[in-house]
Amino acid sequence: MRQYIKYIDGLLTSAVEKDPATTSKLEAYFFTPGVQALANHYRAHRLFKKGKTFRALMLAKKSRRKTGIEIHPAAVIGERVFIDHGMGIVIGGTAIVEDDVTIYHGVTLGGIDLSPDNKRHPTVKKGAMLGAGSTILGDITIGENSKVGANSLVLKDVPDNATAVGSPVRIIEH
Length: 174
Description:
Elements: H1 2-18, H2 25-31, H3 33-49, H4 53-67, E1 70-71, E2 76-77, E3 82-84, E4 90-91, E5 96-97, E6 102-104, E7 108-110, E8 123-124, E9 129-130, E10 135-137, E11 141-142, E12 147-148, E13 153-154, E14 163-165, E15 170-173
Parallel strand pairs: 1-4, 2-5, 3-6, 4-7, 5-8, 6-9, 7-10, 8-11, 9-12, 10-13, 12-14
Antiparallel strand pairs: 14-15
């Protein structure tokens, strides 16, 4: 329980720090769909790891209906992740999102490999920012502190500290 409270506090702190429209942790808790989706995912992920797949999937479904944010219970999500205007976000089952990542609305962390035995979804490293509507597909890595521009299509790795934009993506800063 203590670990859950610490995780939620990190989400709330991140929301207040990264969203100028959010003025308090209380406001973030009740009115920020990203916080609600990540809090539900925390619980669903633990159920999934314990083999309680049906319960985990039901909680994920309920969260998706409430928030518009779809996170598979098998996905690994770090601490202090901030989801702003989360409607339409999809995070696949083998995705890994590290600490302090910012995700804007309409982002897809999707798979292109259909084999259930392979890692099919992206890894997003610490401190990265994923712009609104960006689509990141496959077992690729978005580097630490990198930025992916809005509506970008990413099918290859983005190095650390880079800015990637376009469809298909190109690196404009490194």
